[in-house]
Design a protein that fits this description.
Elements lengths: L6 E5 L13 H12 L4 E5 L4 H11 L5 E6 L3 E7 L13 E4 L7 H4 L7 E6 L2 E6 L3 E6 L2
Parallel strand pairs: 1-2, 2-3
Antiparallel strand pairs: 3-4, 5-8, 6-7, 7-8
Helix pairs in contact: 1-2
Length: about 140
């Protein structure tokens, strides 16, 4: 089954007091990693210097499945998206179902290397298949 991804918000302003200080950068990075967790969709928001946003984004690469920047002026902007399943986020509407066993997709996977992903969309339904999770159908409500 497709793993559920949690949406985690990290307010960068909350990482520092009145002014961000470059010598405290390693502390800020550790503070940002804790709420972000592993494999989640992470939203960075809050007033902060550009260098802090860049360093936190770099620190979360490889930890976050998807990284989003959010501000009242821009709305949400996807910085990176390494989610092969198009983001089945637990806080959003939508459905997801997967074939329970990768063995069920044997015919589909024949001829591919062990690390592969097939994905396509039909209307509002996204179909993905890989050798570890199997065949999944996802669609919005």
């Amino acid at each position: 089954m497709t793993p559920m991804v949690e949406r985690r918000v990290v307010n960068l302003k909350a990482l520092y007091g009145e002014q961000a200080k470059l010598p405290e950068l390693s502390d800020y990075l550790e503070q940002a990693k804790m709420p972000a967790g592993e494999g989640n969709e992470v939203v960075l928001t809050g007033q902060a210097p550009v260098w802090l946003y860049l360093k936190v984004a770099h620190a979360l690469h490889g930890r976050a499945r998807r990284l989003i920047y959010a501000s009242p002026l821009t709305g949400e902007i996807v910085i990176f998206d390494h989610d092969p399943f198009g983001g089945v986020v637990s806080e959003r509407n939508g459905t997801s179902s997967c074939v329970s066993s990768p063995e069920d997709t044997k015919e589909l996977t024949r001829g591919y290397d062990s690390d592969f992903l097939v994905a396509f969309e039909i209307g509002k339904v996204r179909v993905t298949a890989d050798d570890e999770i199997g065949l999944c159908f996802e669609g919005g409500s």
